[in-house]
Amino acid sequence: MPPGRVAPYFSSDQYDERVQVASSLPDGAEMHVVAGDTSARRFVMTAEYGGRTTGVLDWRMPKDFAADRRWLATTTT
Fold it and tell me: Which of 15, 19, 21, 74 has the smallest count of CB within 10 Å of its CB?
């Protein structure tokens, strides 16, 4: 991804839950919790596929999302 760009994204409000995804979460990707707590239903996960980080999923952590998109842009090519 060119410098200064951010990853494409979408978000969805599901009742009282906000889900945001940047880039892609391909079938078969390994998902890793990198912040928050799944039992509290507030977390950030990365998707890894083929040895590369391909996407970020934020669940009820909208303040983290802009930074996560910028970070993802630095990890993908």
Answer: 15
